[in-house]
Specification:
alpha/beta, 44% helix, 9 strands, binds guanosine-5'-monophosphate, five-stranded parallel beta sheet, 198 residues, Rossmann fold
Length: 198
């Protein structure tokens, strides 16, 4: 059986990446969204096991020790990691997997899985990003500043991704990402994929 594709989706916090992804998932069938583990506090509206597995630092370190992550990183003072087992399970059944990770995660996954397809979702400008982060206003000024600095660094890496989607108008961004996924699916269905994670 042909293995599923792996889509790595990145974009600075506040780029609208989660909204774009959610909307694309409404139109897709046969996919698995990889739920990461994190040591950060849940934001209002986030649910355990849906956006993240919210775990303690101690548990996170145990999981690193146990080799349970495909990759992990420290971001804005918290740990984030991608559990490996669910990805292997879905890809081997021919189900496409979507990963929402930052730039280090992208780099590390690419090293392990060069066939993975990567898409960077970017806000139209750093000014628009700042407005969006302030509107969300779930974080302190210092944390917003830290995320903006990080965003600039991330946006400079957009060129290392296979595709870049500018999230200016939401509907356009959703259509673009959906089209990218459908095109890749058609291509890999024709070529087959056998060697991931083996
Ligand atoms: P947030 O706290 O805004 O949910 O996420 C912060 C950043 O961490 C986002 O850029 C998101 O893509 C990234 N992220 C979430 N889960 C993972 C993960 O498992 N690994 C890596 N490397 N980054 C992650």
């Amino acid at each position: 059986m042909s293995k599923g594709d792996i889509f790595i989706i990145s974009g600075p916090s506040g780029s609208g990446k989660s909204t774009v992804l959610k909307r694309v998932f409404e139109r897709l069938e046969n996919y698995f969204f990889s739920v990461s583990a994190t040591t950060r506090e849940p934001r209002p509206g986030e649910a355990e096991g849906r956006e993240y597995y919210f775990i303690s630092r101690e548990k996170f370190l145990d999981m690193i020790e146990g080799g349970e992550f495909l990759e992990y990183t420290e971001y804005a003072g918290n740990y984030y990691g991608t559990p490996l087992a669910p990805i292997e399970a879905h890809v081997s059944c021919g189900i496409d997997v979507f990963l929402d990770v930052e730039i280090e995660g992208h780099k590390n996954i690419r090293k392990r899985i060069p066939e993975a397809i990567s898409v960077f979702i970017t806000p139209p400008s750093i000014e628009v990003l700042e407005q969006r982060l302030r509107k969300r206003s779930t974080e302190t000024e210092e944390k917003i500043k830290r995320r903006l600095r990080r965003a600039k660094k991330e946006m400079a890496m957009a060129g290392t991704y296979d595709f870049v989607v500018v999230n200016d108008e939401l509907e356009t961004a959703v259509n673009e990402l959906y089209t990218i996924v459908q095109n890749i699916r058609t291509k890999t269905e024709n070529n087959g994929k056998e060697d991931y994670l083996s």
